Amino acid sequence: MQEHNITPNSLSDKDGSKDTNLTTITPKFELDKIGIGSDEIKSEAEQLLRQGIEAKESKGLFTVKTASRWIEQAKTRPIPQMLFGEFWFEGELCILFADTNLGKSILAVQIGNSISRGEQIRGFNLETTKQPILYFDFELSDKQFENRYSIKFEQHYKFDNNFIRVEINPDASIPENQTFEDYLNHSLELSITETGAKVLIIDNLTYLKNETEKARDALPLMKHLKSLKNKYGLSILALAHTPKRDLSKPITRNDLQGSKMLINFCDSSFSIGESHSDKNLRYLKQIKQRNTEQIYDAENVCVCQIDKPLNFLLFEFVNFGKEWEHLRQHTEKDKESLNEKVSELKQQGRSLREIGDALGISHMKVSRILKDCNTL
Questions:
Q1: DSSP secondary-structure letter at 148?
Q2: Which end of the chain has fewer beta carbons closer than 10 Å to its terminal beta carbon, N or C?
């Protein structure tokens, strides 16, 4: 039986003339009438293409791309902004470490307050707008916290509602199938998702893992924090202790508990050092950085004093200096020379703060020197 290939244009009457009642059939879908346009089709096609490329680039544990594709991907991400000068940038897991009683929590609350208000701390740039921050406080009770940010438990400092403080609920019951650490991590993630905060301050790491000085304990902890950071696009400042150290030597990465694993896995790190020239002075030193060059090294530490103007305990920027100036033990001759300079500046009519700024000491030490010299 002979087959006939019939197309719309080949249809005709018996006399060979074309049927005027039949028109050429062309597939035409009026996508705009059902809410689908060419842009949507193009977008869907591009998405499918991207998914295909990403699937091809996934090699088990690794993602394999050309250098050019990595750069193209990076170009779509925002440039990291400063959260606390060059010490801490957006998107970083940063570790602040120091010995006990040097003011880690004081500085951390001050940084969190700065970000929550969108107001920079004098001497340290803030490039982001005001935003919510989660402050996980595993150090102070609510009453101790109140004492720091009030005048004898009255005239309290007014925090912005963007500053969200978190502490452990002692009455919370841990599910039978979870360890304390597992439930802590679950609660940490729940707090992030329900508040929508992108900035976390954890005070301190020791509470998340009991023995961060041991590599086997530090590694899972850092992996968990990095996983949270990447999953939710977080910026994390984690506080950590140092073991007792030789205060005559400069601060190095080896002074951090579990230093090798913690330092290797964090994006940046800085430390608070104690000044032996003045018990009220502290200095900040960069230990690791990725988004900037090292600015605050041993030759240029950032010197601050702890002060409480009115109802807010804080670090107050004084000047820049060299680390060795705060490590060395001053001789009696050095002390006499300092006393003479203080007295001389006081006779010139300088205020206590002006004298302190000029000599690199706190105004409180200036006051003590003048009292000892009976020239206040």
A1: H
A2: N
Q: 302-318: b or e for each residue (b if 16 or more CB lie within 10 Å)?
A: bbbbbbeeeebbbbbbb
Q: Give the torsion through C-alpha atoms of 250, 252, 255, 259, to 10 deg.
A: 180
Q: What does the pLDDT look like over 350-373, one tens digit per residue? A: 998 888 878 877 888 888 888 888
Task: Say which CATH superfamily domain 82-324 falls into.
Answer: P-loop containing nucleotide triphosphate hydrolases (3.40.50.300)
pLDDT of residue 19: 47
Contact 376, 347 (CB under 8 A): no
Question: Using CA atoms, how far apart are residues 122 and 305, in angstroms rounded to an integer?
Answer: 12
Please tell me the distance from the alpha carbon of residue 294 to that of residue 87, in angstroms, as a whole number: 9
Closest listed residue to residue 315, CA positions, set 171, 38, 104: 104
Closest CA to 155 of 312, 6, 5: 312
Q: If you ran DSSP here, which 8-state letter would residue 373 be given?
A: T
Residue keyed to tokens 């006393």: 339
Indicate yes or no: pTM above 0.70: yes
Q: What is the CA radius of gyration of the chain?
A: 32
pLDDT score recorded for residue 35: 59
Per DSSP, 241 falls in state: E
End-to-end CA distance of the chain: 123
Phi/psi at 81 (5° precision): -105, 155
Helix 363-372 vs helix 332-347: crossing angle, to nearest 10: 100
Query: What pLDDT sits at residue 215?
Result: 47
DSSP annotation of 236 reads: E
Contact 354, 345 (CB under 8 A): yes
Closest CA to 236 of 249, 222, 247: 222
Residue labelled with tokens 């605050």: 296
pLDDT at position 124: 97
Q: Which regions in the chain score pLDDT beneath 50? A: 1-14, 17-24, 211-215
